[in-house]
Amino acid sequence: MTHATDRRDSAALVFEARRRHGLSQASLARRAGTTQRHVSRIERGEVSPSVDTLRRLLAAMGERLELRAVAGPCDHRSDEELRADRDELSPGERIAETSALSRSLTAIANA
Q: Are residues 14 and 48 in the same domain?
């Protein structure tokens, strides 16, 4: 997950909880001990709030933030197995795979 995705997820989380509770940004900010401007910037995805900030905002609305780690996709094949799989690709498929990898690495570098 990229930082931009994290910001959008945080923004939606705070916005949707605030709407569910019928609170304005200003009243949420007062309850959470922050400013309306900060709540607004979080909801617009301009800033990525810390976990502590998210917890504080949600707690001010009577909600709780739950985090958990989920196993991601695993590929425990050896280098030789990975090379053999790549050797089975057509030249066009290799170019497409390399291009996708390049885009991913560029996105990570620019994040």
A: yes
The CATH number of the domain where 20 resides is what? Answer: 1.10.260.40
Length of the chain: 111
Residues 83, 55 share a domain: no
Tens digits of per-residue pLDDT, 10-67? 999 999 999 999 999 999 999 999 999 999 999 999 999 999 999 999 999 999 999 8
In one-letter notation, the amino acid at residue 53 is T
Number of domains in the chain: 2
Contact residues for 34 (Cβ-Cβ < 8 A; gap 6+): 53, 56, 57
Number of helices (H), then strands (E), belonging to the chain: the values are: 6, 0
pLDDT band at 1 (very low <50, low <70, confident <90, very high): very low
Cα–Cα separations (whole angstroms), residue 23 to 8, 29, 31, 42, 57: 20, 10, 10, 15, 12
